[in-house]
Model the fold of this input.
Amino acid sequence: MRLSDFSVLTFDCYGTLIDWESGIVAALSPWLEAHGVTPGRERILAAFAAAEAPQQQATPGMLYRELLATVHGAIAAEFGLAPDPAAAQAFGASIKDWPPFPDSAAALAYLKGHYQLVILSNVDRASFAHSQAKLGVDFDAVYTAEDVGSYKPDPRNFAHLVAGLGERGIGREQILHTAESLFHDHVPAKRAGLVTCWIHRRAGEEGFGATRAPADEVRPDFRFATLAAMAAAHRAEQRD
Done:
């Protein structure tokens, strides 16, 4: 199997193209420190992961920026702090400030010359617009949790993706789903019959950061530590 066997790359955005872990920590750390709590990066991410997935399951129709505000309250409780509505709203709005990974824009610009590029994200459309501006590429299609009414890893999100691309004449065999999260993306993508590529942004780090551990064992078909490495592998195929 080769990267060039596919004509469409479907991407998770947050954790794969956008460095959401750095964005989450940057948004939460000053508030925690102002209240005398200094848990460190990995502890903050673990608290986020523990709160986010249950909230997504409980309120699948809630816009992601509003869901983050709710998650903030759970994180406050985890660290023994009182709810702070203003800080919660600021956390929900912080998506616009989350940075892209340093390699994302250049790698996407290269890949755009060889594939259709599609987003399947757990974010809302207004928040994603800020991230798209940072990534500097026009995606051929964007599917969000706001469109579907559920959050990955719910199988409805991947069914929506496959159906939407099917309407464009694109079959499963043409799609390579490209993502970091085993929990949110690789397990449900495999169940949906898709080939997957793991952009393992946390390679060399312990644990799963801002995501939960996958519910089932999963083996992605391709694996790269960065999107730049994936683009380089594609370039190498073109030279063969």
The mean pLDDT is 96. Residues 41-58 form the longest helix (18 residues).
